[in-house]
Amino acid sequence: MTTRFAPSPTGLLHLGHAYAALVAHRLAHQHHGTFLLRFEDIDHTRVRPEFYVAIEEDLRWLGLTWQGAPLHQTDRLPAYAAALEQLNATQVLYPCFCTRRDIAEETARITNAPHGPEGPLYPGTCRALSADQRAALLAADTPHCWRLDAAAASQRLGPLTFRDQRHGEIPVDPALLGDVILARKDIATSYHLAVVVDDAFQHISLVTRGEDLLPATHVHRLLQGLLALPEPTYHHHPLILDANGQRLAKRDESQTIRSLRASGLSPEETIRRATVA
Ligand code: GLU
Fold it and tell me: Residues 11-30: pLDDT tens digits?
């Protein structure tokens, strides 16, 4: 069995990340499995080089060692392009030319605009474009992203489920996150596409991550089905909350491993805090 910790090098690790890494590390060790590290670094607008080093240092200080060299998603762009091509060939994608403003206006205009767990979903405007309209916009080099046609994908695959160690067997709801972006305008991939392709590439058999990503797994299961990739088991763990019951924010510097370490906490104490917080 193989697990992974997949931080984005867009900031320092805080207690919440340490907990996520610990869960993956412990489950791998309990099963005499392998723990891998992956940098989810496709978002060049937010990644900073110094955070790769800082994250590796903090993990080592916590005693969490991984096998082999960490995977960098920026090295994997051709694999994501191939997966996107494969999806496009099965007609479950469409180009979306909407700006943020177009989406906000359309959402405000229509009654019953689709909503997901974290707010409004894409209202589907560009799904309705004709083949000719699409071709003309593409020929004119109109900036666009690529979206999953969730209904078409679901129709193709039929009912699906995924298995979570804490939550049991969960039926996939294709409409939960709507027509998500699989390739951004500025980056030819997205979190959803990259994570699915890489979990298969790294032979991850148990995906451990925070419960905030449970809705995303519905999309990931669809993508695994469409790309004929193996289906991992999931373990969505609770999130560490601060004293006010709020999720730890990346900007809360007092909870970074760096500052806890600087305040004199030992790795063991930090781990205890990450575990019981
Ligand atoms: N990069 C994500 C995070 O830092 C983790 C995504 C995942 O584990 O699938 O929260």
Answer: 999 999 999 999 999 999 99
Residues lining ligand 1, Cβ inside 6 A:
6-8, 40, 195, 209, 213
Instruction: State if pTM tops 0.85.
Output: yes
Instruction: Give the bridge partners for 95, in sequence order.
Output: 146
Q: What is the C-alpha separation between 5 and 154, in angstroms, rounded?
A: 29
CA 205 to CA 224: how far, in whole Å?
Answer: 13
| Nearest CA among 135, 163, 160 for reference residue 150 | 160
Helix (H) or strand (E) holding 268: helix 267-276
Q: What is the percentage of the chain residues whose pLDDT exceeds 70?
A: 98
At 244 the pLDDT is: 77
* Burial 195-214, CB ≥16 within 10 A → b, else e: bbbbbbebebbbbbbbeeeb
Q: What are phi and psi of 179, to 5 degrees?
A: -85, 85
CA of 204 to the centre of ligand 1 (A): 14
Q: How far is the CA of 245 from the centre of ligand 1 (A)?
A: 21
Over residues 29-50, the pLDDT tens digits come to: 999 999 999 999 999 999 999 9
Domains of the chain: 1-75+240-277 (3.40.50.620), 76-200 (3.90.800.10)
Q: What's the average model confidence in pLDDT over 144-161?
A: 98
